[in-house]
Amino acid sequence: MAKLTDDHKAALKRFRDQRKEGGVDPAEYAKQFRRERLAIEAALKNGPATVPVIASATGLSGKQVLWHLAGMRKYGLAREVGQDGDYPRYELVAADKDTHGKN
Amino acid sequence: MQGANFDVVVVGGGISGIQAALDLADQDHKVLLVERAASIGGKMISLSKTFPTLDCSSCITTPKMSAAFHHRNIQVWTSTEVERVESRDGVRKVHLRKHPTYVDNSLCIGCRLCEYACPVEYPDPFEEGLGAQRAIAVPFTNALPQKAVLNPRYCIACGACIKACPTDAVRFDQEEERLTVEAGAVVLTTGFVLNALELKREYNAARSANIISPLQLERLLAPHGPYGRVLRPSDGKVPGNVAFVLCAGSRDQSIGVPYCSRFCCMYSIKQAMLLSGALPTAELTIYYMDIRAFGKGHEQFYQNAKAMGIQFVKAKVASIEPVTGDDLSLRVELEEEGGRVAERRHDLVVLAQGAIPVFEPSKALNTPAAEDGFLRQPDPVRITWTGVEGVFAAGCALGPKDIVDSIVEAGAAAMEASRFLALRAAGGSPGKEPDQLTNPIET
């Protein structure tokens, strides 16, 4: 893994400053994203669960939970395992240092 | 690159643009293919299957994308938007805006290590918002070019991508560029967009995640879709009773789209057929005004769908209301029962939105648009000519049409452009062709 050079740091700073001038600040979005993701991961620690079960455990909407699960499936962090009635169940995939899902 | 010169600039890297570029390049013309998205492929690369043959859509599109991308006579510029096309004194000038991708494409090897290191995800445009995409990512699996693109709206500038990149390709100091290229001819294949799902307020799409667009259903049906199977977006339930509402954004004066979008009947039938395979026990209903199955093999396709048990109900859907259990109640007037009004309950509804133009002819080409907003076709026997010297068009830039018709039209536009260049090279002045200037026929 490469280290950030002074040039990289200067470019990052300029990028942040320019974006701030344009009124774009994704920090709040990123924090919210992280909070939601951690809540879903915590809800899945006890074993596989359906979207409605995760939604009631986290207080998030079913739509938001399913969206996170789609991202977690894509990056190898969760997978579907069986079904409960009409609802598929999801479980966490154990973090493997060699998989691309490492975050 | 400023002042670069090409025989033809093709604007729009969807299936029409790719076909037109290939047909021109195979005749040894030097072609620039410009695409505003980060990958070529257009709408077709995101579709599950095509009608009426049920062929895999990406299996047809990917080789064509690859053939164009690697053709010795074609240069592909992605993340590049056309601002204006000028046709003056026998020269076409195309003014372009190249958006920063924050990645040096000459260094990026498409390894996706930046994507795996990025800590932020946002609604993936390729998955029509249903899936998640990291703030720096290769747009989709078979995107061309296979290069990462950073979305500055969601990037938190943490530098993780810089640290992960093995070739030091991430460039936070990249800026927008404005370029002008000259061309002998231009082919516009700018395609279409669907009008907003929320446009018909009585359908309440803003109040339910289970009222979806046909392009969202295409992604749900695709083998590598966002959920890996068909689920309804509100709660991840396997849907058991799906409704398709046709003419939900076209043939409707009240929303300013009086024309027919032409391909909705057939893709809805196709989607219902594919759903009956994915969800064998689901009830599938298509609410229609009339089925327009006008193309080759389309009527047989429609009859096959009916034989498969898909319900076709001739009815205009008056309103859609979200009800308990995230379901939807449709108020319909059943035409074959004397106009009786009924309430029908479904757990997923697909609205066949209208196809509207992207390109603004009056702003970008200094020529008026046709009545429907698409490009004009002033000559009924040379339908790919836009009325502007040396500027041709094909596909949905001229009006909604299916993939087969778009490809045929792209070939025709390429031929018109090629003929135009040949006449010019032979010393003739194609701008003064008698059938263009002395006998214009207005549609």
Q: What is the fold-level CATH name, i.e. the topology of the domain at 25-92 in chain A?
A: Arc Repressor Mutant, subunit A
User: Which structural class fits the helix and strand makeup of chain A?
Assistant: alpha+beta
Shape descriptor of chain B reads globular
Q: Roughly how much helix do the residues of chain B carry, as a percent range?
A: 10-25%
Residues in β-strands, percent of chain A: 5-15%
Largest sheet of chain B: 8 strands, mixed
Question: How many DSSP H or I helices of chain A?
Answer: 4
CATH superfamily of the largest domain in chain B: FAD/NAD(P)-binding domain
Order of helices and strands of chain A: HHEHHEE
| CATH classification, class level of the domain at 25-92 in chain A | Mainly Alpha
CATH superfamily of the domain at 25-92 in chain A: Winged helix-like DNA-binding domain superfamily/Winged helix DNA-binding domain
Provide the low-confidence segments of chain B as ranges: 434-439
Number of helices of chain B: 10
CATH class of the largest domain in chain B: Alpha Beta
Describe this structure in words.
The complex is a heterodimer of chains A (103) and B (443). Helices cover 53% and strands 15% of the residues of chain A. Chain A contains four helices and three strands; from the N terminus they run ααβααββ. Chain A has helices at 6-21, 27-44, 51-58, 62-74, and strands spanning 49-50, 78-84, 87-92. In chain A, a hairpin with a 2-residue loop joins β2 and β3. The model of chain A has no long low-confidence stretch (mean pLDDT 91). In chain B, strands 1, 2, 3, 4, 5, 10, 20 and 21 form an eight-stranded mixed beta sheet that branches. A seven-stranded mixed beta sheet of chain B has the order 12-18-13-14-15-16-17. A two-stranded antiparallel ribbon of chain B has the order 6-7. Chain A binds chain B through residues 1-4, 8-9, 11-12, 14-16, 19, 24, 26-27, 29-30, 33-34, 50-52, 55, 61-63, 65-71, 73-75, 80, 83, 86-88, 100-103, and chain B through 102, 112, 116-117, 119-123, 127, 130-132, 134-135, 152-157, 159, 162-166, 168, 171-173, 209, 226-229, 231, 233-238, 240, 326.
